[in-house]
Amino acid sequence: MKQLVTYCNNCHSKIGLKKNANDRVDLQMKVGDYVSLTCSKCRTTNEYHINKVVATHTIIPMLVLFLAIIIIPILIYYLNTNGFLNVDYILYNGGLIGMLIVIPFAFYFTISSSENKQIRLFNQYKVKE
Ligand SMILES: [Zn+2]
User: Fold this and answer.
1) What is the whole-number distance in angstroms between the Cα of residue 45 and the centre of ligand 1?
2) CA dist., res. 79 & res. 71, Å (int)
3) Sequence-ordered list of residues with C-beta below 8 angstroms from that of 52, at least 6 positions apart, any chain
4) pLDDT tens-digit profile of 52-94?
5) Global model pTM greater than 0.90
6) CA–centroid distance, residue 47 to ligand 1 (Å)
7) Half-sphere exposure (CA, 13 Å, Cβ side) for 111?
8) Where are the domains of the chain?
């Protein structure tokens, strides 16, 4: 995932595009050379050239990280109470702390790095003006 945004000509606030595209050529095929956007802060509508559109991070990796931090302990507790997992054994091996910390961050880094690749791909090439 990634988010396509541009910055308002009037107040420089971030304006999000509701379209998704792999790169600017793909975006050009979907919207043309210019896209008309209204700033949510100052309500000004302007035409923006697609070279002014940039890809940025979404909050999804952070969201996944927080969800994993909340869900994994619950899951471990559930598995332990139902006898699928022996927490005492894992605790003995020091693995529980590892599971609680390593798994959420592994999720975070996996999603975040795939997002970085998509962002780089989009921002790398500009279309001819
Ligand atoms: Zn504005």
Assistant:
1) 8
2) 12
3) 6, 7
4) 999 999 999 999 999 999 998 888 888 888 887 777 766 666 6
5) no
6) 12
7) 18
8) 3-56, 60-118
